[in-house]
Amino acid sequence: MVVLCVPAEVTVILLDIEGTTTPIAFVKDILFPYIKENVKEYLQTHWEEEECQQDVNLLRKQAEEDSHLDGAVPIPAASGNGADDLQQMIQAVVDNVRWQMSLDRKTTALKQLQGHMWRAAFAAGRMKAEFFEDVVPAVRKWREAGMKVYIYSSGSVEAQKLLFGHSTEGDILELVDGHFDTKIGHKVESESYRKIANSIGCSTNNILFLTDVTLEASAAEEADVHVAVVVRPGNAGLTDDEKTYYSLITSFSELYLPSST
Ligand SMILES: CSCCC(=O)C(=O)COP(=O)(O)O
Ligand SMILES: [Mg+2]
Q: How and how many cofactors are bound, per the record note (predicted)?
């Protein structure tokens, strides 16, 4: 088995979710279709609620920022004029969400609404989050060895907690010391990793970030974070240069902590 030795200065392991802890297929075939199929009904049911209105306002702001993009779907300002206007507004939000999802966009606005929509599905037991089988044993071992384990995903913190709280392995939320999402910054920006280190109270070189996306690995590395690229079934392929440049692992069990036995 290939072994990747974790540098002695690393005290924090920062994990991506999709393509790293969790199969991309679970996200693409279960989580995302649930949103596409249920977004209209969800908006109609929850429209009057404050949380839903906050989600719509955030989506509207994002739509304004996106107005220069090809195919962007605007969301009109609320006029408060009648049922037809309301249905038009809901349809605009639905079209905007579907347009963003067709591009797999990682905007905070989209991710916030998705997290709120998944809440009911997880709570009702309609969905259980999938984790690769090596994830839970490895995380337990790292924690026993004194490592802190944090999550950094484009999925909202609320969505992350739903996944860890309702997994096929049971409630594994207690295995995580903390969560970060795009509110701290985007995963392809190195400043995000500096802010994460600052928030945890460590130096960037105390962190090892595991991700499937080389653009994220590159941004983290620029901030002096240690990185390893995770190769999982169903992940996007890597170029030969990427395969040569990055440390690669196919399972968390390939990480060797000098402090553990
Ligand atoms: C954790 S929520 C579900 C996945 C999701 O919406 C997402 O965008 C995952 O992105 P990641 O940064 O974990 O690759
Ligand atoms: Mg990922």
A: Binds 1 Mg(2+) ion per subunit.
